[in-house]
Structures are given as structure tokens and as C-alpha cells.
Amino acid sequence: MTVTWEELGWERVAAGVGRVRLPGWDCTAGLVVGAGTVLMIDAGSSLAEGARLRTRAEELTGSRVTHLALTHPHFDHVFGAAAFAGAEVFGAVGVDTVPAEELRADAVRNGLDETAAAEAADTLVRPRHLVSGEWTLDLGGGRQVLLANIGPGHTAHDLAVLIPGSPETVFCGDLVEESGEPQAGPDAVPSHWPAALDRLLELGGEDALYVPGHGAVVDAAFVRAQRDALAARFGVSR
Hints:
By secondary structure, the chain is of the alpha/beta class. The chain has helices at about 45-60, 75-80, 100-110, 115-120, 195-205, 220-235; strands spanning about 10-15, 15-20, 30-35, 40, 65-70, 90, 130, 135-140, 145-150, 160-165, 170-175, 210-215. The strands form 2 sheets. A 7-stranded mixed sheet has the order 1-2-3-4-5-6-7, with helices on one face. Strands 8-9-10-11-12 form a 5-stranded mixed sheet, covered by helices on one side. Helix 5 (about 195-205) links the parallel strand 11 and strand 12.
């Protein structure tokens, strides 16, 4: 019997493309299905959450997760990565330099159990493939995915994922947030953030669906409005 996206708690965004909003920090994880390949976008906030994501992805697709793209180095997006053994891991250049201890401390400050945070930090996966500009990932069956290093912005190492189709889908990481005001921590680069959103809009276009790191799927108008709000918030001119 075929299992649907919805039956496993996923939201189908486009053909072979879905996402799930995870409990706790309302963090998004994405899934792109190729021909015998599966790309996961972000890995959750702990090893246990990553393992649950992997199991649900395998139930849905009938294949193991072969590729993992990490949109930025924050614990709620990367701490589950070690659960995806054997996957080819991608991230923006420099993402591998963020200290594991810094991520662990941030996780505990934000309410993650200390034992879970320490376990994830000790097994932190560093991307093998570092994207400096754009990287076209061939998932087979005519499905190609564009990984684009469009930061800095929310962090110094922001990666967006564009999936062509009807509609095109753009996974934005925390460059875009719908469920609250975009969070600018000490590792944010506010002066470049609006330009990163301009680049997102160039990649996706007016008719794309934009999947934020937190919250509901949005359209180009929402991204443009958030870009203008960030520019005003941080005093950035065009």
C-alpha cells in the first residue's frame, strides 16, 4: 500500500517535494525524491529527531536518504545530521568552522536537554561538500537540484536549495521566517541579509513557493516584504 505524505505528517509542496514542521522550535526539514535517491534538507535538533526524520523518509520513499543539505549552522537544523549515516552532506563554505561547543551551548540555552546537546555536539557531522557559489546536484530521473551559497545573512554560511518544477520550490533556511520575526543572533550579518533575499527572489522568481526555516510556505511577495522590513530594521539601503 502506498503511503501518502500527509499520512506520515509531511506537507507535499510539489511533485516529489515535501516538508515537515518539527516540534519544539517549529523548524522545517525538507525532502526531495529522485530516482533511487533522496535529499533531506536540514536534519533536526538532536540525534533522536534526526533518526525519526530518517525513518519517516524511508517509509515514505522506500529508499534511504542519500544526500543531506544543511542550510546553516544552527543546532535546530544540524544536530540530527549524524543519524543520516552514509549520506553525502552539503553546506556553505565555512559552515565546517563553527565550533561544536558553540552549538552545544546555544542548544542548551534554548532548552535542549544537556545530554542530548552533548551527544549531538560530540558526533557533529561536518559537510564533505562545501558550496562556494552554486552546485547542481543530479538526483537522477531528470531531477536536478540547485544548491546556492547566497549568504551571509542570517548567518555567515547560508545555503538555499532550489528545486525546479511546477511550481519551483525554494528552501530558504532561516533567511526567511514566517512564524515570527527573523532572528538575528550574534552570528548574523545584517548588512548583507537584504541582498541575500534579493538573490533568493532572483533564483526562484515570482511564481515559486518559498519554504522558510520556520513557519508556513510563503510566496515571493512575502519574501520581498520581509526583505524590506529587514532593510528598514538594520538601516540597509539598496
